[in-house]
Amino acid sequence: MSRVNGKTVIVTGGARGMGAAFARRLIAEGASVVITDVLVDEGKAVAAELGARAMFLPLDVTDETAWATVVAETERAFGPVSGLVNNAGIVHVDPIERLAEADYRKVIDVNQVGVFLGMKAVVPSMRTAGNGSIVNISSIGGIIAFSNILGYVASKWAVRGMTKAAAQEFGADGIRVNSVHPGVVATEMTSESERSNSMVHDQPLPRAATPDELANVVLFLISDESSFCTGSEFVADGGYTTK
């Protein structure tokens, strides 16, 4: 298959879960993929599994200097960046009155500031490529709200707005920016969550999504099949937000 043949894509948080599924799908459809994560051993294992068109680079998404290194190394290995999937994210659970400022700021730094730094880092390379597609992984928590995860909700609403602002700025360069809003996805982060498991029973499709189902959405947005899509939300939640 060759839906993204010749494209060079950076995937953050690519060592496991949805990020690893995104990398596998993009490789299968012809892209070269740079997998980044703070989980070095797991990230290297995924890259080794995927072969010559995959490479792992360690990345703390809150570190602007590290972002510059990743983009430079990507260009050296595979050429200009034509796709970015801002997938790295964390969650911290606590009611607001017990939520420590440091824990709130950590979630904002990874989920929101990391997306900003990623977009900022890749745009010059995408201009060199002649176009590009940025996919920011938000959440249904960026469309509706949930209690006890204030930082996560705040960051995912921010990603939704940042996506629209960036789409306006980068459109003239042929760079598209869209956000993806998953509901519950069966990953390491959700498998032990009683709250996540209970959510799916009350939605039209009463199950969690698989990472591969989200990978299909990301593939569409990175590919030229979505050439007229920018600044939009793509919701994959089994109908949860229809309630």
Number of domains: 1
Helix fraction by DSSP (H/I, runs of at least 4) = 40-55%
Query: Per CATH, which architecture?
Result: 3-Layer(aba) Sandwich
Secondary-structure class: alpha/beta
CATH topology: Rossmann fold
Counting copies of identical and different chains, the oligomeric state is single chain
CATH superfamily: NAD(P)-binding Rossmann-like Domain
In whole angstroms, the N-to-C terminal distance is 37 Å
Question: Spans of 5+ residues with little confidence (pLDDT < 50)?
Answer: none
Strand order of the largest sheet: 3-2-1-4-5-6-7
State the CATH class: Alpha Beta
Number of helical segments with 4 or more residues: 7
Please give the structural blueprint:
Elements: E1 8-12, H1 17-28, E2 32-37, H2 40-50, E3 54-58, H3 64-78, E4 83-86, H4 101-129, E5 132-137, H5 150-170, E6 175-182, H6 194-199, H7 211-222, E7 233-236
Parallel strand pairs: 1-2, 1-4, 2-3, 4-5, 5-6, 6-7
Helix pairs in contact: 1-7, 3-4, 4-5
What features would you describe in this structure?
- By secondary structure, the protein is an alpha/beta fold.
- It has a single domain, classed as 3-Layer(aba) Sandwich (Rossmann fold).
- It is built from 7 helices and 7 strands.
- A 7-stranded parallel β-sheet has the order 3-2-1-4-5-6-7, with helices on both faces.
- β4 (83-86), α4 (101-129) and β5 form a beta-alpha-beta unit.
- The longest helix is centred in the middle third of the chain and has 29 residues, at 101-129.
- The radius of gyration is 17 Å and the shape is globular.
- The protein starts with 7 loop residues before the first strand and ends in a 7-residue tail after the last strand.
